[in-house]
Structure formats: structure tokens, C-alpha cells
Amino acid sequence: MRPFELTVPATVDEAVASGHTFLAGGTTLVDLMKLDVVTPPRVADITALPLRGISTEDGLRIGALERMSDVAAHPGVPPAITRALTLSASQQLRNMATIGGNLMQRTRCGYFRDTTMPCNKRSPGSGCGAIGGTNRMHAVLGASRHCAATHASDLAVALVALDAELRITGPDGTRALPLTDFYRTPGDTPDIENDLRSGELITDVLVPHPEHAANSTYVKIRDRRSYEFALCSVAATLEVTGGVVAEARIAAGGVGTIPWRLPGVEAALRGEPATESSFAAAAEIAAHGAEPLAHNGFKVPLLKRTLVRALLELTGGGER
């Protein structure tokens, strides 16, 4: 780890004016600093800022510095969020990691984390080692010729499915931004991962209509049952009236360069019987536009099967 200057701002305004790299739980940033993947000269410890609290008075509001384990244990948090959090990392990391930090975490792509390898996300213009290399864990949706790294957050997938918004404060004031507009696909600039501007800080996460998420779930498929990132995951909410799907909200993880919302599948489900055959028919379009690499083509059928499994859970046809 290279030397850096550490400051401890007393207020949000002081933090955003500093221009420093923000440190909260440190479960991602410190790892990357140790690997010399990121080398910020100045770091601001924001853990003392008043960015905590969980409120259900007007929608669900979660302070960005709330710990993952505390949010997962809160009775007002929808099942999809709870499951996404409890299936993330280890209990020790969940006790440290913050909600804002989880949404800002960097990819776990091995080429990104190895400074001896080419990576356009870490070093623009150096190339993408994954495109012609080992790419079993990489994205089949949203990739470009410059980058195919998957987004790592389980929580972000659940929040995208629930139409969550971020409240962001920066030098120019405070703004709200839908999470679906926050993350960027790599295109020609994979080093630009999100819409956070210079000096800005996530202060809150808002789920505007948590009642829609009462019947929700998060299904995560991985190589082992614990402390492993998703090969494929699906967050889903389902509203069924008289045996017919009235509304669906679905997002996928582990298969895209960003948390991947599936509006086509949602539209295909509306007005259809809540049956396994209808779910399977809608799932056929889940991977529309997928471009598998040499080693990750299995993610296309896996996404379809994971989606059906999630929907069956929500209708009593599968185990939770």
C-alpha cells in the first residue's frame, strides 16, 4: 500500500468539498489499495458522518452508512433486499460494509485486480485481458470490445428491481437519481462506471414503494454456498391477482456489466397466468442480445432457469 493522507471531515459539506476518496467500511477500498489497483493520495474517513438510519414512514429510506448486517435484520426491509444482503460476503464483512460502499464496489474481475495484466477499467487503453483470456465469470450482457467485467453487488440487483433511487450530495447541491440510471455499461470508456460526479457522495438509498416488494425474492447461483460471487442471480417481485400476473419487476446479476433490469420479461409476464409454463415462456427473452465469450455461454440458459426458479418461489412453486 502506498502512503496517503487521511482526513476525518466533520460534516457532509466538508467531505464533499475535500475532493478526497471516501472511506467507509473499507471492505473494498482497502483491498484495492493493498493491491495498488487504486492509489488515492488523500482519503477521507466518513464513518462519523450522520448518514445512518432506516425509515419506513414515506417509502423506505436507508442511510448510506448503515451496515449491511443491520439493514438485513430490519423488519421493514423487503425480502429481496434482505436475501441479497445475507447472501453477500461473510458475516464479518457484512458487519463492517456499508450500503453506500456496497453499491460503489468495484468489479471482482481478476484482470482488473492484477496490475500486471491489461485492463481498460483500471488502465484505459491497455486492453482487456478477459476478452481473449479466461472469462467464465464475465458478462454476457452489456459488454463491449473494451470490457466484459460483471458488476459485483448483490444488493444493487435487488434495488434495481425495486425501482430504488439514490440521494446524492456534492459541491453543486443534492440530487436524486434512479439506480437504473446510475450505473454505466462499459462502451468505449469502461473506467467510467457510474454517474457519480467529482466530489459527490451517496447519502441515502430510497425505495419509493416498498409495499410493491412485499412478495419479492433474490436467488443467487454460485460455485459454492458461501462467500462467493454470483454466476447468475435474479431479484424479482410479483403481484398476482386471480391467478394472473398483474405486475412484475425483475433484475439479474452475474450476467451483465451492470445490474441488468429485464423490462421485456416484465412485459411478457403481465396479464399471463402465474404458471411455470408462462414463466418459462417469458424467460426465453431474458438473455436477448447476449454475446457470450469463449467460456461463459452457460450463463444464457442459467439465467433463464434462475428466473423461473425465482418466480416459482414467489408463487409457492419452489423452495425459498
TrEMBL record:
Q: What is its EC number?
A: 1.17.1.4
Print the keywords alphabetically: Oxidoreductase
Broad class of enzyme this protein falls into = oxidoreductase
User: Keyword Oxidoreductase on this protein?
Assistant: yes
This protein is called: Xanthine dehydrogenase YagS FAD-binding subunit
Secretion signal: which residues?
Answer: none
> Start and end of every FAD-binding PCMH-type domain?
1-212
Highest taxon of the lineage: Bacteria
Keyword Metal-binding assigned to the entry: answer is no
| Alphabetized InterPro entries for the sequence | CO_DH_flav_C, CO_DH_flav_C_dom_sf, Diverse_Substr_Oxidored, FAD-bd_PCMH, FAD-bd_PCMH-like_sf, FAD-bd_PCMH_sub1, FAD-bd_PCMH_sub2, Mopterin_DH_FAD-bd
> What molecular function terms (GO) are annotated for this protein?
FAD binding; xanthine dehydrogenase activity
